[in-house]
Each structure stands twice: as structure tokens, then as C-alpha cells.
Amino acid sequence: MSRGQSLGEFEQIALLAILRLQQEAYGVSIRAEIARRVGRETAPGALYTTLERLEEKGFVKSRIGEPTPERGGRAKRYYKVTAAGVKAVARAQRAYRRLLDGLEIPGVSHV
Amino acid sequence: MSEASFAQRLLSLFTEPAHAESIVGDLTEESCARGRSWFWRQISSTAFALCLKSVRAAPRRSLWLGGAALVLWLGIYAALLAITGLYGFLRYFDPADLDASLSAAPLGFWIRVVSAVVATNFLTGVILGRWASTGAMNGSAPLVVLWLASWVAWPFLAQLVYALSWYWIVGGVFAFPFVYLVPLLAGSAVARRPGSGGGPPFKSPSKVSD
């Protein structure tokens, strides 16, 4: 597997947040979902560069949605995980599980 | 031009215009609850992150472009000094006692030097934005990173090498963005103005309604 096709920790978090949000995944909702689920306040700059990189890798695709008044008439950019993105996140999660298998780490339960 | 439009123009220097629009929209939406200073902090850090990302994505090109940009900058600066007759004023840069020699310089000297540096950065930004940009990178990006690094390193070097007084260092730190970064980015923005023919040939996705 080439380095460009592997996923960093934050890339996995972003992909999983997008998968959870389904049709409603755009910058603000992705950041909110990460904050809610992971308890981490993400810098917008870090999220947008990660989303750009994921799009360049072909793991997400985006489309421009509707402009709204509270956004100063600016359109939202919705993200969707591609089949390649789903495969990449599944591969990364399998690798984590294999590493965890047989390990006893306090506070971590896995099946 | 509204603040949000200005922010959008700034981000457009380092990413696709459609992407810049959606980022500014997101930050505008959130800034209702978080305030204006939060908005500008996030715009600055996002612009820097996007600029750094484009430079890191193509390290060899960035290195080459950064070197070429520096040579271009020095060439334009030397030409402007020659045109404005500022070479005669260089006696005020006495490395043996820089603190005293700078203090002796008249106001006219500072106005001309600062004007020359501002003009040099603006022209460099125009040239790099117009002729050195690709779809993935604004031509000014490596020089922006270099100037930001200099901004951080300069106070320490000035103190270490020339033992400059604190007021020169503080003054330099405050003036640096307005003399170096703002004109460089403004030049780059002018080069990329719609219809000017400058900038990367970005593709914007077509708008669809939900």
C-alpha cells in the first residue's frame, strides 16, 4: 500500500464523521460531530486541508449545495465518502483491531 | 468590499475560489456565535494551513520557486533602489553600529526605504501570482512561507547579530506584515483578479440544489 493511500488518525476521524452525518456532512457539521463524538475541538484550517487531501486521494467527493442567509449567501460544500474511502477506513480499522487483538488496555474494550 | 468578501479573496489565493466560498460561508455561520475576532483568527490560520499544504505537497517545486522568488525580489529591490537614488542612503546601514546609524537616519530615508520594500513585494506578488501559479499552488506561496519564517526568526537574529535595541525589534515585528506580507498577497490577488488572465486555471464544480 502506498503512503499516499494510507490514512492518518485525523483523516480516519474525518471520514468516520462524514459517514455518520450521511447527507448532512459539511464543514460546520463535521467539526461539530467530531467535537461531540471525540471531544476534540478541531481547528477549521486542519479540517479543510484534510478534506482537500482526502478529495485529492479520491476518498471523498464534494458537491456544492444551497446558499443560505446565515452564511452571507454562500453555498455549503457537502462531502460524501467514496467506495475507495470506505475501503481505506475499513482497512485502517482492521489494522487497529489486529494490533489490539489480545492486548489488555485499561479503558479499551473490543470484540 | 465586505469583510467576508475580503476573507474569501484571501483564501482564494491558496485554494479553489468555490472552496474558499464554502469555507468563508462555514466560518460566517459559526462566527454568529463566536464573534468577529474568532472569524479572523480562523481565516488567518486556514489561509496559512492551505498555503503550507500546497508548499508541502510539491517540495521540490516549492524549493525551486522559493529560490527564484528570492532572486526576483532582490532584483526588483535593487532596481528600485537604483531608480529612487536610495543607494546613497545605504550609509545608514552600518553593520558595525547598526543601532546608532539607524537612529541617525532621517524620516525621508525611512519613507523611501519602506516604499521601496512595499513596492518590491507588491510587484513580486504580481509576477509570481501571474506567471508562477499552477492549479495546485499560488506562485507566491513559497515566498509567503519564507517571509513568515523570517518574521519569527528576525527578532532573534537582529538581537544576536546586531544587538539592536528593543524598540527597533518591536517596531520591525509590528511593521513586517504590512511591509512584506500584505503587499505580496495584494500583488498576488491583483494578478488573479477575474478577467486579468492570472492565476491557476481552477475548475469550479457546478452548483446543484438539494
Give a quick summary of the entry.
The complex is a heterodimer of chains A (111) and B (210). Chain A has helices spanning 9-21, 27-38, 44-57, 83-100; strands at 60-68, 74-81.
Provide tags for this entry:
heterodimer; A: 111 residues; alpha+beta; B: 210 residues; mainly alpha; disordered C terminus
Write the layout of secondary structure elements.
The complex is a heterodimer of chains A (111) and B (210).
Chain A: H1 9-21, H2 27-38, H3 44-57, E1 60-68, E2 74-81, H4 83-100
Chain B: H1 3-11, H2 17-34, H3 36-57, H4 59-84, H5 98-104, H6 107-131, H7 141-162, H8 166-191
Helix pairs in contact in B: 1-2, 2-3, 3-7, 4-6, 4-7, 6-8, 7-8
Task: Describe the protein.
The complex is a heterodimer of chains A (111) and B (210). With 111 residues, chain A is α+β, with helices and mostly antiparallel strands. Chain A has helices at residues 9-21, 27-38, 44-57, 83-100; strands spanning 60-68, 74-81. Chain A contains four helices and two strands, in the order αααββα. In chain A, strands 1-2 form a two-stranded antiparallel ribbon. The longest helix of chain A is centred in the C-terminal third of the chain and has 18 residues, at 83-100. In chain B, helix 3 crosses helix 7 and helix 6 (107-131) packs parallel to helix 8. Chain B contains eight helices and no strands. Chain B has helices at residues 3-11, 17-34, 36-57, 59-84, 98-104, 107-131, 141-162, 166-191.
Largest interface: A-B, 25 and 31 residues
Number of helices of chain A: 4
What does the main sheet of chain A amount to? 2 strands, antiparallel
Mean pLDDT of chain A: 91
Count helical runs of chain B: 8
Number of strands of chain B: 0
Q: What distance lies between the first and last C-alpha atoms of chain B, to the nearest angstrom?
A: 30 Å
SSE series of chain B:
HHHHHHHH
